[in-house]
């Protein structure tokens, strides 16, 4: 946590990467922190503004090809996110934002350089992956199964120094077998938009990473639990 | 009209009548579908010789089409696709059914505008707005604007009536030689922060917006909503008494008057006709059940949810969300909507995807009760107004439930 003991959350480029209710992840993190009495500050950093280097959590959302390519160019030129990661900040990225964390990605038929923060690269798949996405999460993270919705044309190939976030039981994810990636305090997923709304345990993981606390007081997650159960039942039946 | 087109048109009308008689819908699609099978150019033949206005945009097109048809109706009967059948089959049915009337006002799905422009050679095209809709399959907003711009460039004779408050619409219209600008307001800004011309950020201040990197900026509108009326290009203010709620419908009325003016209809002659529109394909319909005055509002995407909150009275409110095929399968957009205007109202939630909504409302700090059925909701609210805001299939479900009871 930054020196003033307020958890600071930066939402990266909402003007470019906010296609699918991505604001939700920022709202959910802020709310879950506040309900535990943890002071929190949220900052929306537009693509024409310099990226702060000292925030605790950075969120990267989804977007179409053009904005995704533009976001990559500006983040590389700015360098602020790289400095923050080097200092131990948490990053949570979804969909197009997830692809940005890797070495390269495809947009509008062209290969673009990614931020190279995680060891993977993305290209185009034979089909667009649209629908429910889910599966058991890497046991080392100690989380209940992932559930979400994906909508992307990419396929992501993980290198040896990064771990998949989950194995796929529903949907496509990276390649039909694995989904998402994580290393250190960086985590990316194809579960797009407000991914944390269906995965409050991931939200709490990010808050634990940011604060250094091993545990956080439990919250009443009745509605999130019902939503998770309903979506997992629907995908099991399909 | 060539013989083939005559036959196609006649078969199209018969099929529509049969479809209605068989209780298989209102016939607004099937007739046109069969007619176009017999003669692929049927729509062009039916459109030939008529003065036509096309109305397109993400939101408000069904209502604006109804209002514009009412306004143009000063001149005589108007062909129109009043039930929201807004693809070429629906246009074909509407024109085949209407007979010889020289006027038509047609709602057009935004993806079909280019195609319908070619087929109908309209006199006027009204462009309302562009925003995110049906996330799992709709085109991105900038791509839609590009499609519109390209299509309009091929029809320089068309008079464009366009919303000065939406940067995407302004950019799409900017290549057209004849544009009338209206200001209908725009509550939703999250699809127009980036300039479609140069990629620079767009700045906003009060009603104004401008690109920080090029010359794109809000044009001066000739038709403007002011208080409970509309100011015309000559500066005259006309009181508009609508049965439809909300400022968004005053904006739709201004658009309708601007469209009608292109047909030579004076706003003074048209305004009284706007007040005859009470509901539009069930939208805004009011029904009384068990002492509750229930009003139905349709909200399909984030922009239309914001408008619905503005339209709704401060009263108990039922929200219903589905994610079936016509709605789009993805509920992520719930987090694009700020539900805080509902704080302080009694809020009930239902629908296939009520739990998605529950999680959203919790984060938004809007207290709510979950109900299994519409009937349960009616019993839980006190006698008086109940506002119902629902997305597409949820709206149809509630309409059906009300029809069964009444
Ligand atoms: Zn510009």
Automatic annotation (TrEMBL), chain A:
Pathway: Cell wall biogenesis; peptidoglycan biosynthesis. Gene3D superfamilies: 3.40.50.880. CDD domains: GATase1_CobQ (cd01750). Keywords: Cell shape, Cell wall biogenesis/degradation, Glutamine amidotransferase, Hydrolase, Ligase, Peptidoglycan synthesis, Transferase. The keyword Secreted does not apply. The keyword Transferase applies. This is Lipid II isoglutaminyl synthase (glutamine-hydrolyzing) subunit GatD. It comes from Phytohabitans flavus. The gene is gatD.
């Amino acid at each position: 946590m930054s020196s003033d003991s307020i958890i600071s959350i930066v939402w990266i480029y909402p003007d470019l990467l906010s296609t699918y209710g991505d604001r939700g992840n920022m709202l959910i993190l802020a709310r879950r922190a506040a309900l535990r009495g943890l002071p929190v500050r949220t900052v929306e950093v537009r693509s024409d503004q310099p990226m702060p280097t000292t925030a605790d959590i950075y969120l990267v959302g989804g977007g179409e090809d053009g904005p995704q390519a533009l976001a990559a160019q500006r983040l590389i030129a700015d360098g602020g996110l790289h400095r923050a990661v080097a200092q131990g900040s948490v990053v949570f990225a979804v969909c197009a934002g997830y692809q940005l964390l890797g070495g390269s990605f495809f947009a509008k038929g062209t290969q673009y350089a990614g931020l190279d923060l995680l060891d993977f690269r993305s290209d185009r798949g034979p089909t667009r992956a649209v629908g429910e996405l889910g599966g058991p999460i890497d046991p080392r993270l100690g989380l209940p199964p992932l559930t979400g919705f994906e909508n992307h044309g990419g396929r992501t190939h993980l290198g040896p120094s990064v771990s998949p976030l989950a194995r796929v039981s529903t949907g496509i994810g990276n390649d039909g077998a694995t989904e998402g990636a994580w290393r250190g305090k960086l985590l990316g997923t194809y579960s797009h938009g407000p991914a944390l709304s269906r995965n409050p345990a991931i939200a709490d993981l990010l808050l634990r990473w940011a604060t250094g606390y091993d545990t956080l007081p439990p919250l009443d997650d009745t509605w999130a639990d019902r939503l998770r159960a309903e979506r997992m039942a629907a995908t099991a039946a399909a | 009209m060539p013989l083939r087109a005559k036959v196609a048109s006649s078969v199209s009308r018969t099929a529509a009548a049969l479809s209605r008689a068989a209780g298989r819908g209102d016939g607004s699609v099937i007739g046109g579908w069969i007619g176009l099978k017999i003669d692929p150019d049927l729509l062009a033949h039916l459109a030939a010789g008529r003065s036509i206005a096309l109305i397109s945009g993400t939101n408000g097109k069904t209502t604006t089409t109804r209002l514009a048809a009412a306004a143009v109706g000063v001149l005589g009967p108007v062909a129109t696709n009043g039930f929201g059948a807004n693809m070429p089959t629906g246009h074909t049915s509407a024109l085949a059914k209407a007979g010889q009337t020289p006027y038509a006002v047609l709602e057009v799905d935004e993806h079909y505008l280019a195609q319908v422009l070619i087929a109908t050679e309209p006199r006027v095209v009204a462009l309302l707005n562009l925003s995110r809709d049906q996330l799992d399959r709709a085109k991105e907003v900038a791509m839609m604007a590009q499609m519109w711009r390209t299509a309009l460039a091929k029809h320089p004779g068309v008079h464009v009536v366009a919303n000065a408050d939406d940067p995407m619409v302004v950019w799409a219209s900017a290549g057209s030689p004849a544009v009338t600008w209206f200001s209908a307001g725009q509550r939703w800004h999250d699809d127009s922060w980036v300039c479609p011309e140069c990629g620079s950020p767009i700045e906003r201040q009060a009603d104004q917006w401008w690109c920080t990197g090029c010359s794109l900026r809000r044009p001066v509108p000739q038709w403007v909503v002011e208080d409970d009326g509309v100011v015309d290009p000559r500066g005259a203010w006309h009181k508009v008494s609508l049965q439809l709620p909300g400022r968004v419908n005053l904006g739709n009325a201004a658009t309708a008057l601007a469209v009608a003016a292109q047909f030579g209809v004076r706003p003074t002659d048209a305004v009284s006709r706007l007040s005859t529109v009470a509901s539009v394909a069930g939208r805004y319909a009011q029904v009384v059940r068990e002492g509750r005055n229930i009003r139905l509002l349709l909200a399909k995407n984030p922009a239309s949810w914001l408008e619905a909150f503005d339209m709704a009275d401060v009263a108990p409110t039922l929200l219903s969300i589905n994610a079936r095929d016509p709605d789009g399968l993805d509920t992520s957009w719930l987090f694009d909507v700020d539900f805080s205007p509902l704080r302080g109202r009694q809020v009930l939630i239902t629908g296939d995807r009520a739990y998605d909504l529950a999680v959203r409302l919790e984060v938004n700090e809007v207290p709510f009760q979950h109900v299994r059925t519409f009937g349960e909701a009616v019993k839980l609210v006190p006698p008086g107004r109940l506002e119902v805001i629902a997305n597409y299939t949820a709206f149809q479900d509630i309409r059906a439930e009300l029809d069964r009871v009444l």
